[in-house]
Amino acid sequence: HNRESNFWNLDKKTSNLTSNRFVWLDDIQAFTAETFRIDKKPDPANWAYKSLYRGDIARYKRRGDSCLGIDAKKQCITWDSSASKRKQLQRRPERYFTKNNVKMLNTDGIPVCNKSSPSDPTAFIPVFQMETDDPSDTTDVNPLGIYDPSTTVWLQGKGCKSTDHEPVNTQQTIQEPGININSILMTKVEEHNKKVRENPRDINAWMEFVSFQDELMRGPSPYASKGEQEVRRKSLKLILEKKLAILERAIESNPSNVDLKLARLKLCTEFWEPPALIKEWQKLIFLHPNNPELWKKYLLFCQSQFTTFSVSKINSLYGKCLTTLAAVQDGTMVSHPLLPGTEEAMLAIFIQQCHFLRQAGHSEKAVSLFQALIDFTFFKPDSVKDLPTRGQVEFFEPFWDSGEPRIGEKGARGWKAWMHQQEKGGWIALKPDDDDEEIDEDQEIKDKSLPKWHIWLDIEYSREARHWLPWRPDKTKKETEEDCEDPERQVLFDDLGPSLIQLSNPDLQRQLLYSFLQFLGVPCTSKLFPSNLYIAMDENNIFESVLSDEKPLTSVSFPLSGFNSIGHMDTMLRGRHHIGHYKEGEEFIQNVFHVLFLLFSGKEKSNLSICWLQYEISKVVQCLQAKNKKKLKAQGRKSKKLAKNLLKEPDNRNHLSLWKLYAYLEWLLGNIDDARKVFDTALCTAGTGGCKSPQLCSLSLLYAQLEVELLESTEGAVISRAVHILTKLAESGPYVPYSGQVLSVNVLKARKTYEHALQDYLSKPSVSDQDQVSDANQLVNLVGCYALFQYLTVGIDAAVLIYAQTSEKLEAPGPQKCENTGENFGIQNFPTALEAITLLHTNLLRFHMKISVYPLNPLREALTEALKRYPSNQSLWRSYIHIQRKSHSASKARRFFDGVTRSTNSLEPWLFAIQAEQLRKKLTENVQRADIGEIHSTIPETGLTNRIVALFEHAVQSENGTHCPLLWRMYLNFLASLGKKEKSKGLFYKALQNCPWAKVLYMDAVEYFPDDLQETLDLMTEKELRVRVPMEELDLLLEV
């Protein structure tokens, strides 16, 4: 038995050995007696030859597949695995993206030309016509008559009769490809060199020469010798170095040109370290300290350098920038002249600084900056007005540090009043108000069982919302500065002194006020400055359009969606936590309005009242969107009270815009009968201005639109309340409330009136700028009323026709020159009017599609035309993706998005293109996950995810997208929603490289990567972003 098992083991060992190709002698020492090895691949040459030495063995190669000595008719040999076949198999046809083919595609085509006739400029070889002597003999060779005469002659076998057309030497026609292209490139190089040599001051020529380098690198090298085509690596560094050399030559010729130096710095970003780059920037700023555009670029550069970034550093840099520009403006910096547009740029930089501080979480500093500049601008004592800016700031400091109430605080009187009182001998101490009840702080931790990161986010958010006002010691409670629990909540004068600037232009002073109101969340008409628009964009609410989907005609579009107002720092997943501000914040806004009402009177004061009422309406709209009935009721009570108080003021009693907003507020709250009463009262008291009164037109338009939205269909619309309102407007008589019918005679009269009024407006020559704005508004309201009237009495096509005619008139510049202005009447005068009319047009089409059957194409065409002209209009984009959602084919929309993103620098097309794809993805997922047995998805998810990622990648590489926090937040949110944790983390750090100041990014990261809470907080502390709840405090709070 034992012997048997040994035998089996031996057998196994042997089989192991024989299965391998090579065997080492060391492995087989166990049985040396008869060791042999089986060769699995025998060599027949061992039998055929006497020797095993390979030199003795004859070698041959077979040529062809034949064999000598066989009878080809009876015998044949099939050769196995012929080498030629094997070679053929190995050579696959090459695809277009292989190295050789790419090289071939990159070279330009070879122009073929006839060299024998250099005077003839044609770029092709002509086929000469031949007259045949007798057409009858051609029928046998050309039965169908389709060959040209020269071919027919050839088919007949005859020679060419005319000897002057000798065949062109092929050598001349086909040129050697390399040389031909080289000669073209060389000529271009020579041209560029000649241009910059003859005219070294021409900046455009230099810039063109720089961008030509890319084209030059694509072709073969023009400097290689004819025989050997040089093979060269097209390295990026090589191109960059060539461009750099050209730019340095250009700067030598134009030492004072800023554009060339900026282009050079942009190139250097690719291969220089940040410290070296910053040094170069500093040199550039030192040479041109009076150039505000350069300062803006420098600030953005420093703000987005993650390695060297810290909030205090950047904040002091903003201060330095504004101090320098203020010195240039005062004339105290003698070395550099004041450039035009500096004051406007200074305000833009100031607002950018406030948004920077808000985004970094230092909201107290941002609010203080605005408070200080408003006091510094509007309450300046006459005694200091002639001093330079720095001198005025020195006088302002004692006021700021005196503990006196500031703008937005109770009892604020302003700097001027304080100075007067100081000269007289101080204030009289006022008794504190007793009615100020103590507000209970909400208990900060509501549920200790939640994970730590969740609790941290909750507390951080709540403090962000409650504590955005700067902390001031309350004198009545005998508080001192030491009593403040969080020293960061106090703002020192050193933080804001350098940023104070003088604004002498009244328009800019107003812009400052409205910017502050927008900052607090009050919707105003004016937009932010475009230069800092996208780096302040950080809120994901630009796609929300609940009301505009339900009520397309009257959807309110507030100009600043996309920007978080102060006190709101919501993460992407949670969305808006609360509406408006907490009690302290609302009181602050109220106080700000009261102070501003004292500053202005007349129209400006009414505009401020409109802003305040719009703010209340915006809160009601948010309540409606959130479907929070309890909150809506409370908010409605407050808002109505405010509206009534505003209307009680003598200045506002006859102000139709306020009555309009009040009636709209009642309508939104669902009190339709009350709203109608308000509208009717306003129209009765408005007088008989008719179509000529802009406010009356606007009021009637809104009233009619709201009424139309109540209609179920266009049946019986001719005798509806809306038609009554619009006919009464056209009659210009006293308004009579609706009694249930409309006379057709009145309808006909009204139509004629509208037609004439519109013609008058369109043929009217333009006047001053101020009148232009009111004219534009009036035109929009008039067209809106007329089109709505036609829609109700005739039909949708009649309304669309009016919009089309008006738009055509506004687009085409009139041929006649106006005598008084010498300007063409055209789109330049009414740019906003055309946009507003387009919006009315598309909204009416959307409404009509909602209540009746109508093709989608007219609306789609109207929207695409409008968006090509106004690519940054968010309302139009919202409508566009709303209608695209219903379409199964995405290719049209994708082509359109692609076209628009190429033709504009705006970021909106990218954002909405991404949103459209995400909605499509959501739709396909819903269809695929629907729980109805076996379901066949009609829309396959073919690479939608990859498409969205590609869109994001392109968008973040665009000039405006690189530093837009909202775009990075959306990208991060998308990757996190796919569950790609590692990728998302990489993206988060990439986002920080570009937007290290955006605190919302860090808060989003805490939600996506809860395990790294400590790491994220350390990063925020290192970069000096505001952390309101340090980890140590959180641990203490959790222990209690």
Can you tell me about this structure?
With 1040 residues, the chain is mostly helical. 57% of the residues lie in helices and 0% in strands. It is built from 42 helices and no strands. α30 (769-793) runs antiparallel to α31 (796-811) and α38 packs antiparallel against α39 (981-994). The termini are far apart. The relative contact order is 0.05. Residues 162-179, 225-232, 428-441 and 814-829 have low confidence and may be disordered. Its main location: nucleus. Keywords: Nucleus. Belongs to the NRDE2 family. This is NRDE-2, necessary for RNA interference, domain containing. One of its GO terms (cellular component) is catalytic step 2 spliceosome.
Please supply descriptive tags for the structure shown above.
TPR-like_helical_dom_sf, NRDE-2, 1040 residues, mainly alpha, HAT
